[in-house]
Specification:
The protein has about 80 residues and is α+β, with helices and mostly antiparallel strands. It has helices at about 5-10, 55-65, and strands spanning about 15-20, 25-30, 35-40, 45-50, 70-75.
Length: about 80
């Protein structure tokens, strides 16, 4: 199933990047239809919002693993 052309065009406005918002808070922009945020705790990670596809989630996880190997312990859906 293909995405609607308008959604593809909209997504192209946001190239993939990882932003450090604060010391232990990162934003993953452009990997999925919405942004994903990660808060790094002492022993684990909290992930805010998930993606719409397994492929997008795998891309974010691969990027996240460049920063830490801590497990994702908490997922917060908004």
């Amino acid at each position: 199933m293909s995405a609607h052309p308008a959604l593809v065009t909209h997504s192209a406005q946001f190239p993939k990047c990882t932003l450090t918002l604060a010391g232990d808070v990162r934003a993953f922009v452009g990997y999925a239809a919405s942004n994903v945020y990660v808060i790094e705790g002492d022993d684990s990670l909290a992930l805010i919002d998930t993606t719409e596809s397994l492929a997008a989630a795998e891309n974010i996880l691969a990027e996240l693993r460049q920063f830490t190997d801590k497990p994702v312990e908490t997922i917060i859906y908004t």
